[in-house]
Amino acid sequence: MPHTPAHRRAWTQSLTGTLSLTKFAVNKAQTNVYLLAGPAGALLIDAAADAPTILRFLGRYPLQTIVTTHSHTDQFQALAEVAAATRARLVCGRPDRAVIEDATGTIQEPVWTGSRVDLPGGGHLDVIGASGHTPGSIMLAYRPPNGPIRIFAGDCILHGAMGRTDTPAALLSLVNVLRAELLDRYPEDTVIHPGHGEDTTLRAERPSLTAVSARRSR
Fold it and tell me: N or C terminus: which one in the chain shows less Cβ crowding within 10 Å?
């Protein structure tokens, strides 16, 4: 599976005849930025850092929406600058809204489980509220007409690990969401695009997620 091997290097895949996915990494934390783009415009997931690089990747595509997956600063260091340059709609998980707005001086549209974020040119991302890594962490599910489902997981799932949680209650919350909203709902070939590091699949992550879920359910 293609991955981002080094700072600012990128790959692009075609998801449909009109929609492509580009992934690249920025900042010292190597935070992944995802761009879903087509003739009608683009949607950006996590304006993590380095606004000039993000804007260069946008190129000719008008940016319609920026989704911030959670309220850790390494996910939104370039948000204010990219938002000002593009006038894009800004979206984040409802419980993280105040933190992100205070840190960036932006106005966010809050979303949560059951919400949809429209893609330019048709289609949408389903929002999965995933409290645990932060109170308002969200994941985004895309079901293409053909090919595997894609989950943009923020830091809820990384390759080979769950995202960090700071309290037992936060860990239990994240475990419950991953079990109910991912393990019990999505097929094994579902592709997981994490906030850091290489992509993975639900098949690859299921054993460790199931083991953690079983331990925390006792």
Answer: C
- Count CA within 13 A, CB hemisphere, residue 110: 11
Both tokens assigned to 36: 């879903």
Q: How confident is the model over 9-20, as pLDDT tens digits?
A: 689 999 999 999
* Alpha carbons 216 and 211: distance in angstroms, whole number: 9
Q: List b or e across 146-174, with b for residues whose CB sees 16 or more CB atoms inside 10 angstroms.
A: eebbbbbbbbbbbeebbbebeeeebbebb
Burial class (CB in 10 A: 0-12, 13-18, 19+), 89: middle
Structural domains in the chain, sorted by start? 10-216 (3.60.15.10)
- Kindly report, residue by residue over 124-141, the tens digit of the pLDDT: 999 999 999 999 999 999
